[in-house]
Design a protein that fits this description.
The structure is a homodimer. Chain A is built from nine helices and four strands. By secondary structure, chain A is of the alpha+beta class. Chain A has two domains: 96 residues, Glutaredoxin; 135 residues, Up-down Bundle (Glutathione S-transferase Yfyf (Class Pi), Chain A, domain 2), CATH 1.20.1050.10. Chain A has a four-stranded mixed β-sheet with strand order 2-1-3-4. In chain A, helix 4 packs antiparallel against helix 5. The first copy, chain A, is globular. Chains A, B: It comes from Lithohypha guttulata.
Chain lengths: 249, 249
């Protein structure tokens, strides 16, 4: 559903974007939503559709071998666009980037899209995949409660070593000439999962460019309006989970 | 160094590919090498250069903020091509794919490259990143010996749940119409790390298309010649590690 449809000229079906992702948490679908919202694109979202869950499960069913145009996706998010289905978060972003005007034009900067993609992949590694692995260090198919001891150890390493490493990296990127003052877009739920730790790191003053950039992104007109809308779902038991015992004391 | 240089017309420096990766193990650099070797491209490789290690460390130094064309990479592999430096394994492959003719031509299949990229990302997740995490489930910066108990638990889950899941997925992809008989390229070191487990899964007959595809790729002229050359390094203590205690009994 796009609550914006009424405000805009109707997009033809062949050009419409359809996001297929689990309802209930922002999850990995959120990276796609933020790109679509920033660009003001019209899209539907299974997270807000009555039969959304069914669309997701049938897409990733063991029985789905895809069709002549598309291999089957392993997992959501997927983007349906015309007759095509594209999967894997950074891949969808790379597909959308030029279409939504979110990456440098190839005639001006032939490798800009690859630089954006490398930053996207690095942000997804350190600020999305690793925070997920913190609460599921042993087995993704098992309950958190069954791997809590290991999760505590991994959380300590994430807070003390990994998160500062990634923040320092992005601080360095934003210090470099290629960042052009920081046009790139990355937003994260790490501060939901580890509020005390993030507050401490922010207070250290070592990652000021990163946190300033984060505020700038949150304040962009379309992103701000999205975050305040009912299209934005709450963090809860998805990738980013707030277990106080995994945060700083 | 390219031992093939003598056999070919000399590539001009501005067009030459330079792979920057740790010497000593195939590692993530291997995915890039296989693409370059399959295409018969000329390239240099820091893994075979006397000062290769220094090139890698200076590239990923805390002091490197990149230049006006390039943000700094977080980690190798990186590809230097003319004035550009591209990082992140799947990103480099996506950059090389069209240049080396390893992805469908955009005029015939506008989204072929995105489908190849989604399969690449999935293969890297399940057959490269996860096997690495098996021997380092808690902290990448700590010794294996300090997280051996957790590694045993994670290895059990990987062998019994994750690896079969990814093999079943690729079997499904290869069963689908979009695979066109299996032109795509993915090769892995999982059978080095978990030889007994892989032998068992192979013997089950459930993943015949995957293993047949693997043999086909290994038998391709350029890949075969590469694997037999001194450009190919041995697996040892990199991503793929053979700890008998982490394999099936």
């Amino acid at each position: 559903m796009s609550t914006r449809a009424s405000k805009r000229q109707k997009t033809e079906e062949k050009d419409a974007y359809h996001l297929i992702y689990w309802p209930g948490v922002p999850g990995r679908g959120e990276h796609i939503r933020l790109a679509l919202e920033e660009a003001g694109a019209e899209y539907t979202d299974t997270a807000h559709q009555e039969d959304g869950m069914k669309t997701v499960t049938s897409l990733i069913s063991d029985q789905n071998t895809g069709d002549s145009h598309n291999p089957p996706p392993l997992a959501p998010p997927a983007l349906k666009h015309g007759e095509y289905i594209i999967s894997q978060t950074p891949n969808i972003l790379m597909y959308l980037g030029p279409q939504l005007g979110l990456v440098p034009d190839v005639s001006e900067d032939p490798v800009g899209i690859y630089h954006v993609n490398s930053l996207t992949l690095t942000a997804l590694d350190g600020l999305s995949n690793e925070p997920h692995d913190v609460h599921h260090p042993i087995a993704v198919g098992e309950y958190y409660e069954n791997q809590k001891d290991e999760a505590k150890k991994k959380a300590k390493d994430y807070r003390e070593s990994r998160l500062p490493k990634f923040l320092a990296y992005f601080e360095r990127v934003l210090s470099g000439d290629a960042s052009k003052g920081g046009e790139y877009l990355y937003v994260n739920g790490v501060s939901f999962a580890f509020p005390k730790c993030v507050e401490k790191l922010k207070g250290s003053g070592k990652y000021d460019k990163v946190f300033k950039h984060y505020e700038m992104v949150k304040g962009r007109e379309n992103i701000k309006s999205y975050l305040e809308s009912d299209r934005r779902q709450e963090y809860s038991m998805g990738i980013y989970r707030h277990y106080p015992e995994l945060d700083d004391e």
